[in-house]
Amino acid sequence: MLLMRLKQSVEDIPEYTGNTVLVDFWNSSKSALEHCREEVYTQGAWDYADCQAEQLAEMLDTWANFLGQRLALCRGENGVMPTYCRYRVKMDQGTPSFEKCDMPLFLESSVRDMRLCESEQKREKLFEAVHRSELFDGKLGMYRVNQALDISELELGRAAAFTPGWLENGSIWLHMEYKYLLELLRGGLYEQFSETMRQAAIPFLDPAVYGRSTLENSSFLVSSLNPEEALHGRGYVARLSGSTAEFMSIWQIMMFGQKPFLRTENGVQINLQPCIPAYLIDEGRTIQAAFLENSTVLYHFAECRDYFPGNYSIRIRSMVDVDAIRQGAATEIVADIF
Description:
alpha+beta, globular
């Protein structure tokens, strides 16, 4: 059984906290995989095998700990997870050795790393590391898709062929930047999200700099890496796909929270947990948002300040028929936040 063999491969490693090449584990795990493939072809893999739930949970925990420790070793001194790794092979008196070479950073790995961080403290640490890195464009207050690539990095693909700051070479790739913003919000880094959102989100940009309506997304914005200073911050190639989908996810969590419904002993109840920064609250101190198919939510704020989950109380003024809302009935939900 492949699961049992892989479990044994991990258990056979006495310690895997050091930054050493785990040749024995590699050979053992690959042998288990090859054995499983052979059994698939000979029909032996289709035999039933008993596995207790506790045993399976133990396996998954073991693998998760193993992968977590190995991933921690992948982070560089700057604290940012690399997207690509490269090693040079050296021959010293007939014995091969490997030298790790630093590669340009890409924002995608930090997006995924932020999603995997198991504590708010680790997410904050990662945010600061990314903010200090060359992924952050200080002039624009935005995050680049990667560090500037030169022509010698063509083995990474066509990205290196573009002028720095343009398209896939160090530009503000809106879809990826919005993914990063979404993970900040999902991870509970509300202050960091709020500050970054105001600088990076298209609706808050200067149209004269952006070069088009701020109601329209772009595929990318020219970053300050580009030699043409007049182009910095200008959006190119109108897009209504990926970046818009990420923005809608951000908007939904900001307006209603990650779990707008909560199952309790008394059935399903409304569970609004908006994340509203002060700069979105006008003099009337109200915000209205469309909810599901035909309903609306109207928030009344006690004062103009940041309202992040955990620093406010919310009171819904009237009874809410959740079943009716889910079935499409027109309903107005009025809530006081203080």
